[in-house]
Write a structure and sequence with these properties.
This protein is mostly beta strands. The protein is about 0% helix and about 50% strand. The protein has no helices and 11 strands. Strands 2, 4, 5, 6, 9, 10 and 11 form a 7-stranded mixed β-sheet that branches.
């Protein structure tokens, strides 16, 4: 069983930045891949960014150049640095990790981009 706990969401103005954190209950280096998804009201959950245990990152086209995913193995934490935020980035952001064929989810953290 893998537990994932997100933090770092909040209200930010357009053009601002936030950094989301996802703390894993075990060794994050054993999780492959780990990533961030988001779900806005009325929309399906979508992949934002993911990173493999080898460090290969993948981004949705809508966030390329603005968001960066990274992992701190010592802290068992995956981060999502979000810059140049737009109102359309407003959503609940979920951490996801795969381990021995199973997919695990955090409870999510709300990100609201509004003036």
């Amino acid at each position: 069983q893998v537990q994932l706990v997100e933090s770092g969401g909040g209200l930010v103005q357009p053009g601002g930045s936030l950094r989301l954190s996802c703390a894993a209950s075990g060794s994050i280096s054993s999780l492959n891949p780990v990533g961030w998804y988001r779900q806005a009201p009325g929309n399906q959950r979508e992949l934002v960014a993911s990173i493999s245990s080898g460090g290969s990152a993948n981004y949705a086209d809508s966030v390329k150049g603005r968001f960066t995913i990274s992992v701190d193995n010592a802290k068992n934490t995956v981060y999502l640095q979000m810059n140049s935020l737009k109102p359309e980035d407003t959503a609940v952001y979920y951490c996801n990790a795969h381990y021995v064929g199973f997919s695990f989810w955090g409870r999510g953290t709300q990100v609201t981009v509004s003036s």
